[in-house]
Amino acid sequence: MDITPSEVFKEYETEEKKLKPRFDRMDKDFERWDLKKMQYEKGPTAINVTSNRPRTFCDAVQTKLSASERQIAIYMAEEEGNA
Description:
The chain has one domain. Helices cover 58% and strands 0% of the residues. It has helices spanning 5-33, 53-67, 77-80.
């Protein structure tokens, strides 16, 4: 079965559209993690503070995940009741 380049490109575009919300969310999360300066209020007396809470939370999660040990569980069919 031969696949034409146009079919491959069409399939690629379909997958790209399907995954776009996920990539948009990842971009938004990265901006929060990278502590991109936000402006919440405008005006001469406004004080805008960018918290480092998202960065410290992500660092803590990454530390815990990297320190964890991988566990592999294999369930036998007899134990599952599918014998």
